[in-house]
Amino acid sequence: MTDTTTTTTSLNKFEKFKAQKDGLAIREDIEKFAALGWEAMDETDRDHRLKWVGVFFRPVTPGKFMMRLRMPNGILTSSQMSVLAQVVQRYGDDGCADITTRQNIQLRGIRIEDLPDIFNRFHAVGLTTIQSGMDNIRNITGDPVAGLDADELYDTRELIQQIQDMLTNKGEGNPEFSNLPRKFNIAIAGGRDNSVHAEINDLAFVPAFKEATGQELSQSPIFGFNILVGGFFSAKRCEAAIPLNAWVAPEDVVAVCRAVLEVFRDNGPRANRQKSRLMWLIDEWGVEKFRAEVESRLGKSLLPAAAKDEIDWEKRDHLGVYKQKQTGLNYAGLNIPVGRLYAEDMFEIARMAEVYGSGEIRFTVEQNIVIPNISDSRLATFLTEPLLERFSIDPGLLARSLVSCTGAQFCNFALIETKNRALEMIKALEADLIFTNPVRIHWTGCPNSCGQPQVADIGLMGTKTRKNGKTLEGVDIYMGGKVGKDAHLGTCVIKGLPCEDLQPLLQDLLIKNFGAKLKQEALVISG
Ligand code: SRM
Ligand code: SF4
Prior knowledge:
Elements: H1 13-20, H2 30-36, H3 43-47, E1 55-56, E2 65-68, E3 75-77, H4 78-89, E4 96-99, E5 105-110, H5 115-124, H6 157-168, E6 186-188, E7 203-210, E8 222-229, E9 232-233, E10 238-239, E11 242-248, H7 253-267, H8 278-285, H9 287-298, E12 320-323, E13 329-334, E14 340-341, H10 343-356, E15 360-363, E16 369-375, H11 376-382, H12 387-390, E17 403-404, H13 419-432, E18 433-434, E19 441-444, E20 458-467, E21 470-479, E22 491-498, H14 502-514, E23 517-518, H15 519-526
Parallel strand pairs: 6-7, 17-19, 19-20
Antiparallel strand pairs: 1-2, 2-5, 3-15, 4-5, 4-14, 7-8, 8-11, 9-10, 12-13, 13-16, 15-16, 18-23, 20-21, 21-22
Helix pairs in contact: 4-10, 6-7, 7-9, 8-9
């Protein structure tokens, strides 16, 4: 299935171990590993191949693994959340979970000997971790208020489930797509505000109406998606996705995903891991040839893109209480500070979704949650729940938009601690300043950019820096990221600022660029 013209000698070390044993083969070995223990395992199986079943060895906490789920469109049920809570609960202080920047969840503290039991529990409630790491397709993101929002153009839920089912063989694992040249991200926007960050995905579908050609029975514009390709962040290069100049009807989206992935799988560059994301293939071929190859796999021509897409709103954060399109029902968006959850929180969220809603819970790419289907009659009581004091529906204007990657606590790539530092910094800034608008601050622990600093108003990327002859934790500062309508990436404006000097600099930036005022000054003026 891989490019037969690539010689073995030009393959990088990842390609070599994949060629020796496919990552998915690890499914058969789980019982054996559980009996063996992590220290006796083959290192390549432990450090790499386990990621094909969503299990990540953490060199920072050896023996305590991370598990990454798949949550199509970011949606789960209260029973699934309770099972996730039970799993992390058994690890006491070592156990916790993180909502991710791809509308997904990761569990921490996992012991290898518990994997067979955990997989059985997941299976019983329809959860899967399959192909969620390494050279596989990541969680597919969709509109967090799909099916709830009266203004939506398309309910993305079913389509995303169909794509996941096709790519993962209904969560059991699909060897057709288990050996891509590199990771691959897919997103579908269903509303007008691009709540999935379409532009930073390898393949994205954005709503667009196509004029009827005359053959259709109805002459009104037809709904579908313009296709974007090649968006990605990496340590060496970051690119926004570019138009494929193609429009697709919803019923052809699954086939287009398959065709694009087949082209990438069979032709994507495999020599250098730093140059193997989809955009590198598009660079090599040009977008015209890439599109022609996709059409050839699809077995038909793609229509040219619609003249304009329908992304014409500012991005919403979905925090707060909003009316649904279903009369008498509401959804509530809760701020989960930097996405971190503990077992008790997860049980509580599951309970609240059951008592007040329909048992459904959703995640957003801002690492927050949405509880839908709360009836008007239960809303007032819902709002008195003690959990809302910590997971607020109306947090401060910095806290509400804060996003952070995992950072040094668990990630061995990290150059700095992120989540805890991000929370402390926001607290300190909100104590001194008054804001009139939310400011989106994203932290990421290293140039891999999992925390997406390039989409933020202020993005902070971990680095090492020098001051007075000492090496210190520092940040590169990004600014100008724009999301929603006319989304574009921010750029690096300051390099290597020591973290110890960050607070005054952020204060200054917030005052000069985002209209913040010092509390003391505001008091003097009003007094
Ligand atoms: Fe990421 C690798 C965490 C979203 C770009 N990412 C990693 C690893 C697996 C590295 C490792 O083995 O330690 C991190 C696991 C740390 C841990 O213990 O949690 C990690 N990435 C994350 C998460 C959890 C960050 C978060 O706190 O939310 C996100 C999980 C998403 C998910 O549910 O699947 C996450 N990663 C992203 C994103 C954002 C996005 O998809 O919108 C990006 C940038 C977009 C992109 O990929 O184009 C991203 N992660 C990377 C890269 C750089 C990829 C590249 O082409 O070079 C790596 C390193 C790699 O793949 O070699 C990486
Ligand atoms: Fe780890 Fe770096 Fe990704 Fe943060 S950005 S999770 S530090 S790989």
